[in-house]
Amino acid sequence: MLFNSYEFIFAFLPFTFFIYFYLNKKRLTKASNFFLVASSLFFYSWWNPIYLPLILISMIFNYVIGTSLTKNKEYRKVSKKQLLTIAIVANIALLGYFKYSDFFISNVNFVLGTEIALLCLALPLAISFFTFQQIAYLVDSYRGKIKEYDFMNYAIFVTFFPQLIAGPIVHHKEMMPQFANVRNKVINYKNIAFGLFIFSIGLFKKVVMADTFAVWATAGFDEATTLSLFEAWATSLSYTFQLYFDFSGYTDMAIGAALLFNIKLPINFNSPYKATDIQDFWRRWHITLTRFLREYIYIPLGGNRKGNFRTYINLMAIFIIGGFWHGAGWTFIFWGFLHGFALVLHRAWSSLGFKLYTWLAWLVTFNFVNIAWVFFRAKEWDDALKVLSGMLGLSGINLPNILSGKLAFLNHYGIEFGNFVINIKGDNFTPLWLLFGFILILVFRNTNQRINRFRLSKDNIIFYGVLCGVFLFVGVMFIGSESEFLYFNF
């Protein structure tokens, strides 16, 4: 079930909300927890019920291992470390089987000249997210940070529907105290107001902004055979904006939906395209994934405690792993390599005491991120090369007809006029949309800032109510044909 669907907005969400709090009002806490888990599993299985047993088996397995890791050593036949290793390997093997089998088979066929048949497995929804989330739970249990002996509580932690499909990747210790808090069992009208407001912003981001940019990005990457200079830049920027508004929109909707239940999810975005260096970017983009990679891979590998060379190796490792986590393809791995290499360069540059003007640092950072996204989006290497060559002007330059009168002399230099966005299904409004995208990401406050500043009073209640109503109305009107969130594919 999609957040941007009529079924979710007008049926599932209000029904789940009212029944959950009704049961809590009657002090049927266990029943309310069971209902929330059942609703979340229904939400998950709406997409494809065949994978419902998979998440159930995964939950039971990790719950049993997690509780075992909290017991005393003398009651075990294996050490805690061995048990943790077995559990992590099992989780990664499950993820690898569904997500990476065909990738490895196709590479074996290419290298050895074999003809092993591909498995062509459908990727189970949310498997990348609930796998990482449960690995974090196991490691925290091993470290003695968690003691969870109630399976229903654990099931809520894994399946809570606002964050189940595409994150944020949450920790047990930051979620379960909220569910255990008695005050959170009662309807909180301030949380409802702010939750609906944030949800409406996320819906607008997705169905108005992201889905508009998706048309040009899809046409440029998947359909066009060649791209002129402006078409190529419009294609890359459209995907850069599509990905941001799509994923941050999902996160806003998740935060907003969770607030209805008095649960505060961690912030996943903090204006990442305002970053002035690549390290700053990763402090702002997909924050919970960065946190996971840092705490459970980078630091165990040694972090920055074993000299510069080892630090650089560790940085490369976590970003290549991060790229591979996003998708089973060499383009994803190369995207991770680019970001890892950029982090290494940034650390080396900073250690020498060099600095750039703020505006130049932003320009370099944004353009690097934008170019790297080309490899992230491209289905094949040829698609990436097509866009990049167009961005360099190697496939010709077309300008709008309106400029032909004053700039006609440019014809002598091979520059043409007219049809300047025809290959990406664009029109004269495409440049204005790109400008609008820049304004939204660089000028306006983000969700995190709005959460910190939100104060509902008699003076602003009408303003927030009208703004929320406008966002919801426009969002619902734009739903039309449902579109998946991009991170469903990862």
Quick description:
The protein is mostly helical and 490 residues long.
Give an account of the 3D structure.
- It is found in: Cell membrane.
- Its main location: membrane.
- GO terms for molecular function: acyltransferase activity.
- Belongs to the membrane-bound acyltransferase family.
- It is a multi-pass membrane protein.
- The protein is mainly α.
- The chain folds into two domains: 6-186, no CATH class; 191-489, no CATH class.
- The chain is built from 19 helices and two strands.
- The chain has helices spanning 6-25, 29-45, 52-69, 80-112, 127-142, 151-159, 161-164, 172-180, 189-223, 229-260, 278-284, 287-298, 308-326, 330-351, 358-377, 381-391, 430-442, 447-453, 461-479; strands at 397-399, 415-417.
- A two-stranded parallel ribbon has the order 1-2.
- Helix 10 (229-260) crosses helix 15 (358-377) and helix 10 packs across helix 17.
- It is globular, with a radius of gyration of 24 Å.
- It starts with 5 loop residues before the first helix and ends in an 11-residue tail after the last helix.
The percentage helix is: 55-70%
Which strand order spans the largest sheet, edge to edge or round the barrel?
1-2
Calculate Rg over CA atoms: 24 Å
How many strands, which pairing sense, and closed or not: the largest β-sheet? 2 strands, parallel
Specify the structural class. mainly alpha
Q: Low-confidence runs (pLDDT<50, min 5 residues)?
A: none
**Total DSSP helices:** 19
Q: Domains counted in the coordinates: how many?
A: 2
Percent of residues in β-strands:
under 5%
Q: Which whole number gives the mean pLDDT?
A: 89
Name the helix and strand elements from N-terminus to C-terminus, one letter apiece: HHHHHHHHHHHHHHHHEEHHH
What would you call the shape?
globular
Instruction: Give the terminus-to-terminus CA distance.
Output: 17 Å
By DSSP, the count of extended strands is: 2
Family: Belongs to the membrane-bound acyltransferase family.
Membrane topology: Multi-pass membrane protein
Transmembrane segments: 6-23, 53-70, 82-100, 116-139, 151-171, 186-204, 315-337, 357-376, 388-409, 429-448, 460-480
InterPro entries: Ac/AlaTfrase_AlgI/DltB, AlgI, MB_O-acyltransferase, MBOAT_fam
